[in-house]
Amino acid sequence: MSKVLVISGHPDLQKSFTNTVILEELNSALSDVEIRRLDALYPDFKIDVAAEQAALVKADLVVLQFPFYWYSVPGLLKQWIDDVFSYNFAYGAEGDKLKGKDFLLSFTIGGPEEAYGPLGNNHFSIEELVKPLQQTAYLAAMNYIKPVYTHRMVYIPGVYNELEDVQGRAKEHATRLISQIEKLTNSAEVRIQKFVSEWFEQFDQLPQESEFFTNSLAEDINWVMPEGAFSGHEGFRSWYAQARESFKPGCDHDVEQLEIKATENGFQADLRIRLRAETYETSVFKGESLNLLVNEVWQIGLNDSGDILLNDYRVVPVAN
Ligand SMILES: Cc1cc2nc3c(=O)[nH]c(=O)nc-3n(C[C@H](O)[C@H](O)[C@H](O)COP(=O)(O)O)c2cc1C
């Protein structure tokens, strides 16, 4: 597991109804996490830069956890960024100390979803409003991960929301955040291995809807099969329709070998798959029971949420 550092930027967690719940959930769910509560460490705003930089250097994933204040981070967290992301640490000639680390914003927002858009009171989307933080990550050569945030988190007794509703939303937020952290901190190899098993479990069932597959295919996927080459999601769907007309659901894809290596643009997986399937009388296989061995080569990228995206998928039969 990689090391996770959570910086809590709430100015007073004793008065928090939601950030405090999220931090408690993180603390009990994650084994290798350091949570730094800036309000307890620096009530006077005097940040210990050396201590904060040392914590950052050890981390693989940095999570900023905060309540959304005036369309941005609270002052205490801004002070932390100003002091800690210093010249020759986060940027500048020798400023490569954060390079390659994942950077994830996790925040609670008082206002509702519909207020954040061109027709809403707040005019801009949340993604637009957090762009200065996104660019901060880029300047520090960090990987900016899609943020996790939740609306309607303000609680003012008798005025806005019910306590149990905002705390319920805080728990849901924590669940999403924990799953994102787990996804990011599992090594790419482990994630690809898990993905391969899920992929073939679905293929064994041949569901009517193909979203599970297309969600993990690049828009311009090259899908190269013994029966021909197909391109993009449309190409995949037409191949998949043919496959569903040939194979009966409940086939068995056995992963006999799987080798994963890093490439310039992501990863390559080399697979040896044994397929046992029953076929329809009306298909080209004329009801024959199949037992085939194929080699597959997948070119894999990871999107900004850490999800797997297949760019190129080739299947070549092996002589039995
Ligand atoms: C000083 C201040 C500024 C705030 N600014 C915003 C804002 O710009 N947009 C918004 O939707 N909510 C805003 N809120 C509401 C907070 O985002 C909300 O109360 C907070 O996320 C709840 O977290 P907590 O329960 O952990 O304190 C603001 C609240 C305070 C106190």
UniProtKB/TrEMBL annotation:
Domain (Flavodoxin-like fold) ranges: 2-156
The lineage's top-level taxon is Bacteria
The UniProt GO MF terms for this protein read: electron transfer activity; FMN binding; NAD(P)H dehydrogenase (quinone) activity
Keyword terms, alphabetized: Oxidoreductase
Q: InterPro entries given for it?
A: Flavodoxin_fold (IPR003680), Flavoprotein-like_sf (IPR029039), KefG/KefF (IPR046980), NTF2-like_dom_sf (IPR032710)
**Stored Pfam families:** Flavodoxin_2 (PF02525)
In Swiss-Prot or TrEMBL terms, this protein is called Flavodoxin-like fold domain-containing protein
Phylogenetic placement of the source organism: Bacteria, Pseudomonadati, Pseudomonadota, Gammaproteobacteria, Oceanospirillales
